[in-house]
Amino acid sequence: MATLLVVASLSLTGCGKKSESSAPGTSAKGQSSTEAGEVKPIDRKMLGAFGKLPAHFDSKTNPPTPAKLDLGHMLYFDARLSRSGTISCNSCHGLSTFGVDGKATSVGHAGDKGDRNAPTVFNAAGQFRQFWDGRMADVEAQAKGPVLNPIEHGLKDAAEVEQLLAAIPGYVVQFQRAFPGENSITFDNFAKAVGAFERKLVTPAPWDRFLGGDDGALSDEQKKGARLFVETGCISCHNGPLLGGQTYQKLGKVKPWPRPADEGRKKETNKAADLHHFKVPTLRNIAKTGPYFHDGQTTDLGEAVRLMARHQLGRELTASQTSLLVSFLGSLTGEPPQQWTAKPTLPPNPVTPPPAAATRVDAGSPAADKAGAAKLGDAGGVVPTVPPAPAGPGSAPEPKPPANDKVPATKPSSP
Ligand code: HEC
Ligand code: HEC
Asked: Which of 30, 39, 275, 303 has CB atoms 3.0–4.6 Å from 224's, for a disulfide?
């Protein structure tokens, strides 16, 4: 880390010419084109602080198996694991929308707003810690959080999660396969399955092809932007294969951040020194994961880049510098793995004793309500292959079903 900082400060002093732009607000218009003209494409010698994305982020303590991955895939999409039966991981981290919900801050199972932006789950497993303030060690530990978070999935405790799962026969079988032995349905195993699944959510991008030696993978603009990323000093914090996810840093390091409401790590550690420290987020897929910052304060990537330069580095960027940096960031948009982003078939609800010929599982039984039963079709409209009577909205005599379908329609997983 020390070497990186040295590299960065060298490069800062190394381009003294640009310090003229450090007087805020004076960014001369004439300067933009000259500046743009001056920027050269990145030299391969400058690539040392970056790194190619690995194929996956497998863990030694939670090795992947096909059964575990399939299970994690289902759990990720299953809205029955929420108080209202409408929220799954995919509601806030839509895998067809680059792992985010596109909202400034997320909305939970009861429509309540949280106070932080949902970061992407793509490549998240490769970070040194999880959450904006790094309060969780890894994706396995993290996966337990949202399910019991009162604003997110809103379940009461681990036992409730286990009961919900044990009531769905398909999960009993699937947990046995993934975790052979006694007592396979546990909250720990739930977290392991989801974590193992998340470790596969890796998005190789043009930038990786460039790092691998393919000069044609990036446009000229992107190569210039990559040089600016190094020379401006972004690299001092956003480095490694993820361009982030490796350290905590103070937000507003050089100049106080304009929106200081969230105390960041201090909330966790209670140490004054941690005030406004946040995990440096990954910049992988950043062009697709706005709104930006922990509170989602802007949807404009150029604005986010300017704010970073000003508050983290004490520099004012010209319009052309900003646009080159934004072009470079576009080369970090990768390809989500189709195998895992598609909606899986979820195990159907247990068929409860049919009170009448046409049966719905949500016919008022408290157990069914609790389980969010008869909500097979939500969390992304998953239709089971085994055709259980209660699944289709059309199969019910009651006029209730549309209510179930409204929620997913507004969710990010739909487009
Ligand atoms: C209601 C919306 C919501 C739901 C549902 C939700 N999350 Fe999140 N998720 C968030 C928010 C908001 C954060 C950031 C919170 C923070 O940092 O304090 C987050 C953070 C994360 C992170 C950390 C990423 C990083 O870069 O640090 C991971 C991983 C994650 N969620 C996975 C999941 C999984 C797995 C599920 C399902 C079990 C899930 N989330 C359900 C909103 C949600
Ligand atoms: C001193 C460390 C530091 C430097 C230097 C730095 N950043 Fe950041 N960056 C951070 C931190 C910390 C955050 C998280 C901010 C938050 O909590 O909202 C962040 C967030 C971001 C975000 C928003 C990410 C998201 O998911 O919302 C972008 C984009 C970004 N930085 C780009 C840059 C660029 C471009 C540069 C160079 C001009 C740069 N950063 C320089 C530490 C740094």
From this structure: 39
